């Protein structure tokens, strides 16, 4: 990398870091403001709200990074085009594509970074943020802990373990209920299915172990109230947002073994990879646009970035919706838009005049 390339790369990184840090922080504040009216009646402390903000900022970093990459590319090379810097580069005998090559590499690195942020920072942050909201509303944690399966306590004295939770069906699979009385484990119930129906949990394939009398009974199907209400996940919480790539894969495999159609989960699974590649797509589009248009002003660069970004996300969201509805396969729904934009961008990149 020569001195000219290093200069542009340094300028790009400074602009990118500035945009992503400011926008992510501001969006986190907006989310708190949006929820503040509902949360004030629970008197949350400033410490909890600050902790919640720190947890949701990585989520916005993940979503905003592609747009920030596009804006940064247009700003850097838009100014270069305005002041005829690209023309000067050509006059020195340096191919313009050689100047853009480091930015293609940066786009790939940003895609990898976005994937890592999603799986190892944003997803755990989303789970912790949702737990904070639950703690504010219910004065206790939502989970005891969560590994490949789920452990939670909705009623005092009752601990529930479920292997699989299917939110759309309000169904738990392979569930164990531990009932404590006077500080001692009194009963254990196991069931193959546990479904929320008309305000109570109905368990099927039930086996009841009475540890006090050392007796086993098989009621089969029974309505139980030990578990409590359906508050483990509220309707606004998406399981995929709380899971890393590997966790979502294990979850989808568990649904397959349980015999459930996991089309929505597979769409979310593929999106974990397809969405981060948006960084590469936006970088490529930014390079192509700035090399062909004399953008000049920062306002024009931001306007073009917003227009291109919105068009991309609208089309991408429509494809995801088709996948959720099982109109198209999950793979097609998540990969068709990035593939189409990348192909178009590479075609235009090859046409950049030298």
Question: Can you give a write-up of this model?
Answer:
- The structure is a single chain.
- With 354 residues, the chain is α+β, with helices and mostly antiparallel strands.
- It contains 10 helices and 7 strands.
- Strands 1-2-3-4-5-6-7 form a 7-stranded antiparallel β-sheet.
- A hairpin with a 4-residue loop joins strand 3 and strand 4 (171-181).
- Helix 7 runs parallel beside helix 10 (330-350), helix 8 (278-292) packs parallel to helix 10 and helix 9 packs antiparallel against helix 10 (330-350).
SSE string, helices as H and strands as E: HHHHEEEEEEEHHHHHH
Question: How many domains, as an integer?
Answer: 2
- Main beta sheet: 7 strands, antiparallel
**Share of β-strand residues:** 15-25%
Q: Structural class from helices and strands? A: alpha+beta
Tell me roughly what share of residues is in helical segments. Answer: 55-70%
Radius of gyration: 26 Å
